[in-house]
Amino acid sequence: MSRTATENGAALGQVLELTVLLGADMSQALVREGLTESRAHLLWELGQRGPSTQQSLARALGVTPRNVTGLVDGLVQTGFVERRPHPSDRRATLVTFTERGERIAEEFQRGRAQVAELLFGDLPDELFSPFVEALGRVLDRLRTALAEAAEGGR
Amino acid sequence: MSRTATENGAALGQVLELTVLLGADMSQALVREGLTESRAHLLWELGQRGPSTQQSLARALGVTPRNVTGLVDGLVQTGFVERRPHPSDRRATLVTFTERGERIAEEFQRGRAQVAELLFGDLPDELFSPFVEALGRVLDRLRTALAEAAEGGR
DNA sequence: TATTGTTATACTCTATAACTATA
DNA sequence: TATAGTTATAGAGTATAACAATA
Asked: In the predicted model, what is the mean pLDDT of chain B?
């Protein structure tokens, strides 16, 4: 083996710590804005897609339509989104940003860019390039393994 | 600037995808074992510390003692842990693994090692070394920023 | 007095199943 | 008959506050 299992394990430990810290940072910011992770995730998807039916949000988030009802209820109460009638389908509602919601969604994007600069801004290219290359390969391995597990589990 | 914000943003995107996929993989495995993330986290800490009071678990997990009561209730019902009297303090209970719990905790460790091999086993040293170096620096930046944010927020 | 764990209460996220209005 | 969203019900995780037993 070119490397010990201990070295690979330590690298995974670093990756896991990174996920924990990024999660903590995000969570901090959300609490400040009066949001939960689930609600923020919905706002993020809404920002990516524009006004959306609850069904499409449910599919995007990978949760049940009933769950989306609850999340939208919360976001309506706290003033981030509105329910509007769908122009051509009277069964459906279009979830749309309020001004406040729009502002927050833009802040998300800015915040994400700031985090990217914080993490990588000072990293010299000699490290950044192989980092991205290695990360790409690691992701490929993981995607493949998960897809195979999903195949086998069916 | 040596790199564009777009490149840094893309790198962050990769990192975030990695966190999502690792979370999905872990979650898959936990559901198979009849565990939730919170309960698995408690088992993990218990494995690191050995038999523990609920207070110490609460501190380790960063949740309230009341919350630990619920998690331990669930783990007792599903046969992963037992409550035993504390030998010297009759107020406290010692949460200890059952045989089944012990077995699962060992499987966690093996599973984690397998994931490490899956992710990094095929990565050539020329990529692995700078990857770890870069990751270390990124973690330092993030730890520092979070510590400062915690300072300021007090 | 302080600490350990629990009861009481409440909020959020999540799911399934049944129901209403509309397509 | 099928789809969009909601009501009903339930379980899990989380929190605060009040309380019992013990230190």
From this structure: 94
Q: How many Å does it take to go from CA A17 to C1' D20?
A: 40
Which pLDDT tens digit goes with each residue over B46-65? 999 999 999 999 999 999 99
Round to whole Å and give the CA distance between B67 and A153: 33
Give the DSSP letter of residue A100. Answer: H
Question: Hey, are the CB atoms on A135 and B14 less than 8 Å from each other?
Answer: yes
Question: Residues by CB within 7 Å of nucleic chain D, which ones?
Answer: A 53-55, 65-66, 68-69, 72, 83, 86, 89, 91-93; B 36-39, 61-64, 66-67, 70-71, 74, 88-91
- What distance in Å separates the CA atoms of residue B31 and residue B39, rounded to the nearest whole number? 11
Q: What is the pLDDT of residue A153?
A: 55
Going by their DSSP bridges, the two strands A93-97 and B81-85 should be labelled as unpaired
φ/ψ (deg, to 5) at A96: -130, 155
Q: Write out residues 79-98 of A within 8 Å (CB-CB) of B.
A: none
Nucleotides of D under 7 A from a protein CB: 3-8, 12-18, 21-23
Threshold 0.85, pTM exceeds:
yes
